[in-house]
Amino acid sequence: MATKSANPWVALLKTNMRRDPQAGYVTLATVENSRPRARTVLFSGLVEDGDKVGVAIKTSRLSRKVQNADNEFVEIVWWFEGTSTQFRFGGPIDYENHPEQRARL
User: Fold this and answer.
1) Which of 6, 58, 68, 76 would staple 89 via disulfide (CB 3.0–4.6 Å)?
2) If you count DSSP H runs as helices and E runs as strands, how many of each does the chain have, helices first?
3) Which residues are CB-contacts of 43 (< 8 A; sequence separation ≥ 6)?
4) What is the pLDDT of residues 69-98, one digit of tens each?
5) For residue 81, which of 24, 10, 39, 41 has the smallest C-alpha distance?
6) How far apart are the C-alpha atoms of 24 and 80, rounded to whole Å?
């Protein structure tokens, strides 16, 4: 049995993920050198810790570019074509080399 999230939108997001499993890419936006930058990255999972929810993405060379952003805040836009639904998440980004290193969200 799945645990209930403290965030009501998480259930809606998970429903869209089940209905549109092909929607595995998200758009990550940052500000670099005072200019907006957006790139498409691969979604790899949700990280829930109490009332905090993180969106895990897979990167490679992107990490270095994102780490050069003007600040730690990013926005993620996730479009589900199958349900015609869009989600937007904003907040600080954390970098980790391995999933077990999740120190904070």
Assistant:
1) 76
2) 2, 5
3) 23, 24, 25, 26, 55, 56, 57, 58, 78
4) 788 888 999 999 989 999 998 988 876 665
5) 24
6) 9
For 57, the 3-state DSSP assignment is: strand
* Residues near 14 by beta carbon (within 8 Å), at least 6 away in sequence: 46
Query: Model pTM?
Result: 0.73
Query: End-to-end alpha-carbon separation of the chain, Å?
Result: 24
CB 89 within 8 A of CB 42: no
Residue of 78, 72, 74, 73 lying closest to 45 (CA atoms): 78
Hey, what are 59's tokens?
């990167």
